[in-house]
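Q: Please design a sequence for this.
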């Protein structure tokens, strides 16, 4: 059975993006990028909301990667090798391989996907992750906290959800970012 992991870059004040939708402050250096590569290597299926998918689909295109560092090119291959499920009621078609669209988020379908998976799954996008948290589907929360305060924007964690967490790992990166990895305690 695979675990469902919510993983994200966040600001110190808990945002994924600023009030203008920008996340340029979280661009990873080579060390953080290598960390994300290793983490993503263990993911067989990524669950995305429409906006996160539209952001991530850049990894399907080789044109811009030619001059990119090896760690960045490596991530493209890892991303392409994973299956992707995009939850969207408006997206007409997908522009990437190994990708399918689901019109609605069905918690029982995600539970079955986890049960049938021999690898971990990831959930990306604040809205989709919030739904997964609310339905008790997230097994692990992995946040790379960047040394920046952005003052507002899209919250990394959902409002109105209370979870017990157990700290599993902490890692400092040379550039000042810090990994906080927590297991989500089962609800009783």
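A: Design:
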């Amino acid at each position: 059975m695979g675990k469902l992991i919510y993983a994200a870059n966040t600001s110190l004040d808990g945002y994924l993006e600023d009030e203008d939708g920008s996340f340029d402050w979280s661009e990873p250096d080579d060390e953080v990028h290598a960390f994300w590569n290793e983490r993503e290597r263990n993911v067989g299926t990524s669950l995305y909301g429409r906006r996160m998918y539209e952001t991530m689909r850049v990894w399907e295109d080789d044109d811009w990667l030619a001059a990119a560092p090896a760690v960045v090119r490596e991530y493209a291959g890892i991303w392409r090798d994973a299956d992707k499920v995009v939850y969207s009621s408006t997206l007409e078609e997908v522009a990437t391989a190994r990708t399918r669209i689901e019109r609605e988020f069905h918690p029982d379908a995600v539970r079955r996907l986890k049960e049938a998976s021999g690898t971990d799954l990831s959930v990306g996008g604040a809205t989709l992750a919030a739904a997964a948290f609310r339905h008790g589907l997230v097994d692990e929360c992995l946040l790379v906290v960047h040394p920046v305060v952005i003052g507002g924007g899209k919250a990394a964690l959902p409002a109105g959800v209370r979870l017990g967490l157990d700290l599993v790992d902490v890692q400092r990166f040379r550039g000042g970012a810090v990994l906080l990895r927590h297991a989500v305690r089962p609800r009783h």
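Q: Thanks. Anything notable?
A: The domain at 4-184 is CATH 3.40.430.10 (Dihydrofolate Reductase, subunit A). The first strand starts at residue 4 and ends at 11.
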